[in-house]
Design a protein that fits this description.
Layout lengths: L9 H6 L4 H11 L2 H7 L5 H14 L3 E5 L3 H14 L3 E2 L5 E4 L13 E5 L10 E4 H12 L7 E9 L8 E7 L2 H10 L1 E2 L4 H8 L3 E6 L12 E5 L4 E5 L4 H4 L4 H14 L4 E4 L1 E7 L5 E7 L6 H7 L2 E4 L3 E5 L5 E4 L4 E5 L9 H8 L5 E4 L2 E2 L5 E2 L10 E4 L2 E4 L18 E5 L16 E9 L9 E3 L3 H9 L2 E3 L10 E3 L12 H12 L11 E5 L22 H12 L6 E3 L2 E3 L2 H12 L5 H8 L1 E2 H17 L5 H21 L2 E2 L1 H6 L1
Parallel strand pairs: 1-6, 3-19, 4-5, 4-10, 7-9, 9-11, 14-25, 25-29
Antiparallel strand pairs: 2-3, 6-7, 6-8, 10-11, 12-16, 13-14, 13-15, 16-17, 17-25, 18-24, 19-24, 20-21, 22-23, 26-29, 27-28, 30-31, 32-33
Bound molecules: sulfopyruvate and manganese (II) ion.
Sulfopyruvate binds next to helix 9.
Length: 653
């Protein structure tokens, strides 16, 4: 069991400041008059003590208290430019940032939970004992900001006033990290302490890029102290390792939901978007997918964008499931973003009018960014994550260096997007009626299916399988990706699973508001369905049809075909949706290939999950019951129809 405030708070011990008086004395010594005046606008003892200790530990040359004004944002952006962390591009408001070529994703091998001696953590994660972590942090972070400017930012992860928001400090010597925080999170300088009082806690993140040299990268670390909800990150720059407001704090929010949420809260790796239905109806969808599997594209395919990466959910007094986005911007993968699949994002990336931080793409000699899969004619030379680049360049291993890294990203405010919904700022969140789970699955599950009930829905999430993507350094192969949230689940998987069953099956949700739960799969290939080649059977834009169908299904507007894995769409419902939503013919023959059940593949998946979960401790029996029920049904179908069962055969029942 996770114990809060257990063991020493490392930054407090290394900083040595225990009281508000000591904190104030340090501020007087270390801050110039302007920033002293700013910090005097704060009075919460814990907040002041935490900031003072970060200063005492990191020993910066200057402390900048960021109040989130336009002037402060301009200062931070300019600091990033002066330091060389970013450079300006041809388009007004656009900058480029590079991470070292060895740090183009999350460094999971150097990411640890700080644990108390008797504490269990996820079998998928690394842990370091508190005393050892203190030694490492002392050795690496004491004085790490010598001569540098420390920016202290006060944010709220979610709208001010929302039930599931969490206040968080981002303290960093990287102006790029701070600049990114300003675009991706809500600066809450004026509301911070009020929100800390209301919510009873805050998260703290302390980061320094150190000297930002490749030789220091083996010593880079990302530490998460669950007991004190404080992160430490050093010698790295990639936002997934450094801007711990994002995944570092998401991990704490998962803990909070699982261990304190009482079946009424979740913290998910999900987009949130609204789909227009008939007669002006808007239906809100939240969906999980592993990093690099189309969450941003799916969110942008909706009519009303709220978020593309994270969702905080709760059951409210009106018996509905509400969701908010802890972020207010996107840190989106740009590979394969093009006019065809992502017209609205492309519009913002290629036209003036918004602030964009690009990372790890190619910049040509005219200061224009280029990336793989953008549908444009690529230049033959420029500068990218690897340094100077020209077509045909190979790395030290003899591999061709792509024009942009597959995890190259753009950072942009949600409000810049044409489909941005102002519901993104609503403290009451959006009423969520559809939950989706997806992964890169080339050969097994159909494009869309709806769980029979909430228990089956939780099992869809538990059973996500996905090919590895570039967001984690060194990841390869096909992996289980439970709820697409596994990299961010600090505690035991069984505890997390129980929280899922408790939440979605909760009697506190009204039956007519209980979300439908679905699987989505955009990655079926021709070769897996009787054709040849690894080309996808569908197109990116088809997602609008799948979401459109789910929108109708959530309101009971369409019937569906009952199968052991859940309900699949009828052809006659999909065909008009393809026509009206994406102006595309949808041949029956394609439908049959996409929605025939390949029983042996699904059974193999079922076995894989049953075996893998069988090895975990304390997995709720309900998971095995659901998998067993599905297996029996699938075997029965196979006995009657053979290994490939078409929708028409399924309709025969
Ligand atoms: C992801 O990889 O899931 C991201 C980017 O959203 S980050 O976690 O920040 O690396
Ligand atoms: Mn993510």
């Amino acid at each position: 069991m996770l114990k809060k405030n257990e063991g020493i708070d490392i930054v407090k011990e290394l900083g040595g400041i225990q009281t508000v008086e000591e904190a104030q004395a340090l501020f007087e010594q270390r801050l110039d008059a302007e920033h002293l005046a700013r910090i005097r606008r704060l009075s919460h003892p814990e907040v002041l003590i935490k900031i003072a200790n970060a200063i005492a530990m990191c020993d910066p040359g200057r402390v900048y208290i960021n109040t989130g004004t336009d002037a402060d944002r301009a200062f931070i952006r300019q600091l990033a430019l002066n330091k060389g962390e970013e450079a300006v591009l041809a388009m007004d408001g656009h900058t480029i940032h590079y991470d070292l070529k060895e740090e183009q994703g999350r460094i999971i091998d150097r990411t640890y939970y700080i644990a108390n001696p008797d504490e269990k953590i996820s079998s998928l994660a690394n842990k370091i004992l508190r005393d050892d972590a203190r030694t490492v942090v002392r050795e690496k972070m004491a004085g790490i900001m010598n001569g540098a400017t420390m920016v202290v930012g006060l944010y709220i992860r979610g709208p001010v006033g929302a039930a599931a928001s969490n206040p968080a400090l981002e303290i960093t010597s990287s102006a790029y990290v701070s600049h990114s925080a300003e675009i991706l999170y809500r600066n809450a300088f004026d509301d911070f302490e009020k929100e800390v009082e209301r919510l009873g806690h805050f998260y703290t993140n302390v980061h320094s890029e150190g000297l930002n040299r490749p030789e220091d990268l083996p010593n880079a670390r990302v530490f998460m102290d669950r007991s004190h909800r404080t992160t430490y990150s050093f010698n790295c720059t990639y936002a997934g390792n450094t801007l711990l407001l994002k995944k570092g704090n998401h991990r704490f929010s998962v803990d909070k939901a699982v261990y304190e949420g009482k079946g009424l809260e979740l913290a998910e790796h999900m987009f949130i978007t609204g789909i227009d239905g008939p007669d002006g109806r808007v239906t809100w969808v939240a969906g999980a997918a592993p990093s690099g599997c189309g969450k941003t594209t799916t969110a942008m395919a909706g009519n009303h964008f709220v978020g593309d990466d994270l969702a905080q959910m709760w059951i409210d007094g009106n018996k509905s499931v509400r969701s908010i986005n802890p972020e207010c911007g996107i840190f989106g993968i740009v590979e394969d973003v093009n006019r065809e699949g992502d017209p609205m994002l492309m519009d913002r990336l290629r036209n003036p009018g918004s602030e964009v931080i690009w990372s790890n793409v190619l910049i040509d000699e005219d200061g224009v960014p280029h990336w793989k899969g953008n549908g444009e004619t690529p230049p033959t030379r420029g500068r990218n994550f690897h340094g100077p680049w020209k077509k045909g360049l190979v790395d030290s291993g003899g591999k061709e260096v792509p024009i942009s890294h597959p995890n190259a990203r753009c950072t942009i405010a949600s409000s810049a997007l044409a489909n941005y919904s102002d519901m993104a700022e609503a403290a009451e969140g959006v009423e969520t009626r559809v939950i989706t789970y997806s992964g890169r699955d080339s050969d097994t599950m159909p494009p869309v299916w709806v769980a029979k009930n909430s228990a089956h829905g939780v099992v869809i999430g538990a059973c996500i399988v996905s090919a590895a993507t570039a967001t984690e350094v060194g990841a390869t192969g096909v992996k289980r990706a439970p709820w697409a949230n596994a990299p961010f689940i600090p505690g035991a998987l069984g505890d997390y699973m129980k929280a899922q069953f408790d939440f979605f099956g909760n009697a506190a949700i009204a039956e007519n508001k209980r979300p439908i739960m679905a699987g989505l799969n955009y990655f079926l290939t021709h070769e897996a369905r009787g054709g040849s080649g690894t080309k996808l059977l569908g197109e990116k834009k088809d997602v609008k049809a799948w979401l459109g169908w789910l929108e109708r299904r959530a309101h009971g507007d369409v019937e569906a075909i009952d199968t052991p894995i859940g309900f699949i769409p009828r052809y006659e419902d999909l065909k008009p949706l393809f026509e009206t939503l994406i102006d595309k013919a949808y041949p029956k023959e394609l439908y049959e290939r996409q929605f025939s059940l390949y029983i042996d593949n699904i059974l193999a998946r079922n076995d894989l999950q049953t075996t893998a979960y069988g090895k975990e401790e304390n997995i709720p029996q309900l998971l095995f019951d659901v998998l067993g029920e599905q297996r029996d049904g699938l075997i029965d179908l196979k006995n009657r129809f053979g290994p490939v069962v078409t929708p028409d055969q399924l309709l025969e029942g």
